[in-house]
């Protein structure tokens, strides 16, 4: 009885023959896809799919002494923003042919940073993206940057700190939200702010205040919350209404808080948007299905993730790209109306 021979996995040479290109072109498609014409790259990628070609990462690492691994540091918070950003970065890495390894850093203590470094160095991590929504994580990123290429995803650093940063312009997002309310004729516009130690919350406060001051309106109607959940929005809205029941609009620091705020307003006998307009921030997947559908600011997490990887690769190549801030987009729905 003749046993079957094992089926040989397709090689780069097989892909080159199928695509009608050279072995070097296939290599460039894997390692430097931006160097190829789009039609050539598409032909090589189609041949890979048809043959079921998979890169031999272990062989590549032995040959180049590179692992193709990018570290991602997350604050470990369950809030919507950091989770979406982590997923966006992972997707951007896969699109560029890299794998990711995740480590959680909740503080900037030396022991935590050293533990993260040991983890990354032990797995041959080549470079790191750090999601830094709070100062303690940003401090940890600065320490990491002394040992390996690091790009921070954050909204709270200035160019003077000379860090490579990608962020979403939180202040501009807040300006878009509040300007929308001003244009609708609202004059008493309050803000339910997120936790004060978050860069995002600080940026949204600043944008809200700027527009109100520019419009000659009161910039002091604000309640800060200790968390980002719907229950925090509910409690903050109750506190706000107890302080001033004559409000005609509220800008809320994220969508889940806005969900709780709308419920608190309904419990107080107010109708949204007939009596009071509400704007959120993030544009979570369910925002269009809230009752009423939520006007909100959409954060371009996917674009930020791709930018983070582009900046990281440039940093690893010895460049200093500096800072890249992406402008969010206002999504107008039925939770706001003209006065």
From TrEMBL:
One Pfam family it belongs to: Peripla_BP_3
GO function terms (MF aspect): DNA-binding transcription factor activity; transcription cis-regulatory region binding
Gene3D superfamilies given in the database record: 3.40.50.2300, lambda repressor-like DNA-binding domains (1.10.260.40)
Top-rank taxon, per record: Bacteria
HTH lacI-type domain span: 10-64
PROSITE patterns for the chain: HTH_LACI_1 (PS00356), HTH_LACI_2 (PS50932)
Keywords associated with the record: DNA-binding, Transcription, Transcription regulation
Protein name: Substrate-binding domain-containing protein
Gene source species: Nesterenkonia alkaliphila
């Amino acid at each position: 009885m003749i046993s079957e021979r094992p089926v040989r996995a397709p090689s780069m040479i097989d892909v080159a023959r199928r695509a009608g290109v050279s072995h070097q072109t296939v290599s460039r498609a894997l390692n430097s896809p931006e160097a190829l014409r789009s039609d050539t790259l598409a032909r090589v990628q189609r041949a890979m799919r048809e043959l079921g070609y998979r890169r031999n990462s272990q062989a590549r690492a032995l040959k180049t002494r590179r692992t193709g691994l990018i570290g991602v540091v997350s604050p470990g918070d369950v809030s919507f923003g950091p989770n979406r950003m982590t997923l966006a970065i992972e997707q951007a890495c896969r699109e560029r042919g890299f794998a990711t390894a995740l480590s959680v850093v909740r503080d900037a203590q030396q022991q935590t940073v050293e533990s993260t470094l040991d983890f990354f160095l032990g797995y041959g991590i080549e470079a790191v993206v750090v999601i830094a929504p709070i100062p303690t994580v940003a401090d940890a990123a600065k320490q990491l940057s002394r040992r390996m290429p690091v790009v921070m995803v954050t909204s709270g650093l200035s160019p003077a700190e000379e860090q490579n940063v990608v962020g979403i312009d939180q202040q501009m997002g807040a300006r878009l939200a509040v300007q929308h309310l001003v244009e609708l004729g609202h004059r008493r516009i309050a803000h339910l702010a997120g936790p004060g130690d978050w860069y995002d919350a600080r940026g949204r406060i600043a944008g809200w205040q700027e527009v109100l001051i520019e419009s000659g309106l009161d910039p002091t109607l604000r309640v800060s919350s200790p968390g980002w959940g719907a229950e925090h929005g509910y409690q903050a809205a109750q506190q706000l209404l107890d302080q001033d029941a004559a409000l005609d609009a509220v800008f809320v620091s994220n969508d889940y808080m806005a969900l709780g705020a709308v419920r608190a307003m309904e419990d107080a006998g107010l109708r949204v948007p007939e009596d009071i307009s509400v704007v959120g921030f993030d544009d979570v997947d369910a925002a269009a299905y809230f009752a009423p559908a939520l006007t909100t600011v959409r954060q371009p997490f996917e674009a930020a993730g791709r930018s983070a990887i582009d900046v990281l690769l440039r940093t690893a190549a010895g460049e200093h790209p500096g800072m890249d801030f992406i402008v969010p987009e206002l999504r107008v729905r039925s939770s706001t109306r003209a006065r």
